[in-house]
Structure formats: structure tokens, C-alpha cells
Amino acid sequence: MKLRVLGCSGGIGGNLHTTSLLLDGDVLIDAGTGVAGLSLAEMSAIDHVFVSHSHLDHIACIPLLVDSVSFMRDKPLTVYATAATLETLQQHIFNWKIWPDFTHIPNPQQPLMRFQAIALGNTVTLNGRKITPLPANHVVPAVGFQLDSGAASLVYTGDTTTNDAFWKVVNRIDNMRYLIIETAFSNAEKDLAVLSKHLCPNLLAEELLKLQGSPEVYITHLKPGEVELTMQEVLDCVQGRQPQMLQNGQVFEF
């Protein structure tokens, strides 16, 4: 499996793009603004989109992706998410008021997009690749994902805060090579992190104490304008590990 980071920022500006990870060219893990950097040919090759939750920075490009390459495709794009997230997408995005309902275009029998509900712990297998929803703790229904090639796994937390259920599951993964974990706010904004159910460096340090094993740890979802500050606080707070900042364009092979 080959995972390419299209976007990993908590916002936009300059060359910053929100969360989107491209797996093997045909699978998106979240579809933030990073998708916009792909060519039409690259976008048309995407058959599957796994959505961690319904917030705009993680779904922004789904409507435009479907619309932009529909003439190049002969099968629907499948969007995988929990039932609660799919309901939100249907009611608030693909509702004909914000965007057309592509699950009914050109007709319900041959749509340009289809929804597929997923649930915690239930693995989706795509050509031998296993994608499993993991517990997340956020202000809307949310999940993280385990991407398992068989040889190794990459775990992506999605947006989350302190979450014992996540670590209980993750610590049973015996082939975890990489952990991508969010830290959206600086320590000065801890109250905001708690209110919005994100992590700050102090909370991250407490969470990583629950992690067994020694995967490489990468920090995502840093807010524009606070990247250097927050990463320095991460390095100061986290003991016994060496977290690195996730970079746009970074590639993981596992």
C-alpha cells in the first residue's frame, strides 16, 4: 500500500490544504481541500472515499470531485462513512440546495455516486487492502481508520480528543508501523481543544502514554499560524517518543 498526503493542515492559506490522504491512487481517506491539487486523470481514478466525519475540512472536495470527473467515469464513486455521517451529507450537502444529489444523477439506478455505511470494527476489503473504522471522540459522530496491507498497518486517528476506546483497539494491532494523530491547538488553547474535542500538546502527551509498541508518530491537523509553536510544544511535552510533523506530499509505503 502507498499512501500520499494531499493535505494535512487544520486550515488553508498559502500552500496549506486540509486533510486528504490518497491510497494507491484509487482510495481517498477524507476529502479535504488537498484533493484540488490532483489532475483530472488522477481524480477520475478515485473509486472510493472513506470519510472520518462530516466537518467541512474533511469533506470539502467530495461534491466538486464527483462533478468534475463524472464525464470520465463509467461507475459510481462510493463514499464510505458511518450511517450518521452519511445522513448529514445527504441532508446538508447533497440536498439540491447546497449541491445536487449525485446519488440520483443521472438516475437512481445508474448514479454518479453511492453511499456505503460502515461501522466500528467492520473491515472493508478492497483488492486485499483492509480498511477498518476505529473509535474517535469528536463533537460529531467520527471514526479513525486502520489501513492494513497485511505486511504492516498505518493508523489515522481522524479528529479526536482523549479516547481510551481508541487505544484499547490500537494496542491490539500487531503490525502497526505508523500512527498519524491530530493535534489541532496549542497549549494556550487547551480550553478550546476540550470544548471542540481536539487535542493540544499536553493532551497528546497524556494520550501517547497509553500507546504500546513503537510505531512512527506523525502529527496532523496543525492550525495555520501556529504550526511551529504547536510542534515545539509537542516535542517539549511528549516523552519517550519522537513525533514528527506530517508533511504535505509525504508518502508512506507499507
Protein architecture, described:
Helix 7 (201-208) runs parallel beside helix 8. The longest helix has 11 residues, at 227-237. The protein has eight helices and 14 strands. It folds into two domains: 1-81 and 83-117, Ribonuclease Z/Hydroxyacylglutathione hydrolase-like (Metallo-beta-lactamase, Chain A, 4-Layer Sandwich); 119-246, Metallo-beta-lactamase, Chain A (4-Layer Sandwich). The termini are close together. Strand 12, helix 8 (227-237) and strand 13 (244-245) form a beta-alpha-beta unit. The chain is an alpha/beta fold and 254 residues long. The chain is globular. Strands 6-5-4-3-2-1-14 form a seven-stranded mixed sheet. The chain has a seven-stranded mixed sheet with strand order 7-8-9-10-11-12-13, covered by helices on one side.
* The CATH class of the largest domain: Alpha Beta
Largest sheet: 7 strands, mixed
Low-pLDDT parts are none
- CATH superfamily of the largest domain, by name, is Ribonuclease Z/Hydroxyacylglutathione hydrolase-like
Which strand order does the major sheet show? 6-5-4-3-2-1-14
CATH topology of the largest domain: Metallo-beta-lactamase, Chain A
User: What is the averaged pLDDT score?
Assistant: 97
* Shape field: globular
How far is the first residue's CA from the last residue's CA?
5 Å
The beta-strand count equals 14
Relative strand content: 25-35%
